[in-house]
Give the backbone structure.
Amino acid sequence: MTITLKVPSIACGACANTITKAIEGQKPDAKVSIDVESKMVTVETEASEEIIKEIITAAGHTVEG
């Protein structure tokens, strides 16, 4: 399943790396793609959208919607 989320708190590549490491740390099978300019996070995973949102929030970022 592909999950796409708007994460307005992404400011730079370091933010993207933090989110990627947080998701991959808990869901090693996930494929994470982040567009810093549009602040969009796309995750291919078997995990639910709620779990991915919780991981991003726990990493110190905010998720829209």
